[in-house]
């Protein structure tokens, strides 16, 4: 039978019902019996927190995938099924960590509940710290678990940036360049349209004979009236300039940067490294786009320091030093690492 605290929690947030009873009520109540005057209420709160954590974790993954789709990121096929498989394992692990925390907290007592006479303050402080560590482990695990599933579903990132090892990197960069060039052309066209009606030093105002015509002309670019009115509002020095010269300059600089990046990515994709050195070391490019250096022995401290200085990291799974293949990584390899190994 549910107590009033449980019922209140479920009434406040009905969505938590599917997970609320994962943690047995008696375990949660026992955890707070020596630290709370109302262990049933504390039990209700912690189980609701657990359920909300699960709901938030799953929703965060779905939201990230949704936004990544809008940005054109590469997403693994059947991602919804993979999310469900991940979530079931995630749920069991989070549940177990909550129960571990509750068992640990059951050993904690408060002098307000047990009384101050002969109360072992130092011992309870230590037990309280252990319980806090178990609670912190819950959030640490949740963050790690979400990071891992997103890394699996979005092998080339969430679309905020285009990674060099993305097989479709050149097309994505080109699409971004095309979009920015179209945006720049539109901005120039709007400036030109406004200039047909107003000089820079004019003061646009409704009823001046040109205001409504200008608004109507700008509507063809897909702007609503509120936005078009802002476009012809004089700037901080009183000039009518819908898009400032610095905005067009910055946009042009970004387009040039992306064009150079596109050329760099194309060059990187054509890079082949298959080197063998005098002491048996080898350097190759892995299938997942990393420069991989196998030594076959532990390099001396000077060599390790230089590798680290050029962003190479030790991989225990590959038993090698690795760095993601980029234009900078390629340059560092040829200019610094290869000469050192020769």
Taken in chain order, the helices and strands follow as HHHHHHHHHHHEEEHEEH
Give the neighbour order of strands across the main sheet. 1-2-3-5-4
Total E-strand runs: 5
Number of continuous helical runs: 13
- Class from helix and strand fractions: mainly alpha
Q: How many structurally independent domains?
A: 3
End-to-end Cα distance, whole Å, is 76 Å
* Average pLDDT metric: 93
Can you tell me the residue ranges where pLDDT is under 50 for at least 5 consecutive residues? Answer: none
Largest sheet: 5 strands, antiparallel
Task: Produce a short descriptive summary.
With 342 residues, the protein is mainly α.
Walkthrough of the structure:
The chain has about 350 residues and is mainly α. The chain is built from 13 helices and five strands. The chain has three domains: about 5-155, no CATH class; about 170-265, no CATH class; about 270-340. α3 (about 25-30) packs across α5 (about 80-105). β2 and β3 (about 290-295) form a beta hairpin. Strands 1-2-3-5-4 form a five-stranded antiparallel beta sheet, covered by helices on one side.
Topology:
Layout: H1 4-12, H2 17-20, H3 25-31, H4 39-70, H5 79-105, H6 111-114, H7 121-153, H8 169-197, H9 211-219, H10 225-231, H11 245-269, E1 274-276, E2 282-285, E3 290-294, H12 301-309, E4 313-315, E5 320-324, H13 327-341
Antiparallel strand pairs: 1-2, 2-3, 3-5, 4-5
Helix pairs in contact: 1-4, 3-4, 3-5, 4-5, 4-7, 5-7, 8-9, 8-11
